[in-house]
Amino acid sequence: MQTLCYYLENQMRKNNRPNNRPLGFQGYYVEVREGEDAVRAYRKIKRWIKEDNFIDQIRDNNIYKKPSEIKREKEKERRKTLRKLRREREDNLFVRVKRGR
Asked: Which residues form the domain of 87?
């Protein structure tokens, strides 16, 4: 069996099953076999898109942001994460405190 794409050929060897993806296709792809639910496949693709933050990336790329604005947003996210970790650490410290002897 000869394939046009070396990458797809290697993928087929790894998975030990044929890949029916169109050649050069680089998107979300779910194969619905006979007897399977198409709605379930739709939900699967929808979940992948949500996990990848694909829609958010498209929205962010539609408008120009100055580098200083991007820097400010990253700093804001960093502070938010640190605040959350600090709060969790403080909660865990008080759990282990033994009172009296």
From this structure: 66-101
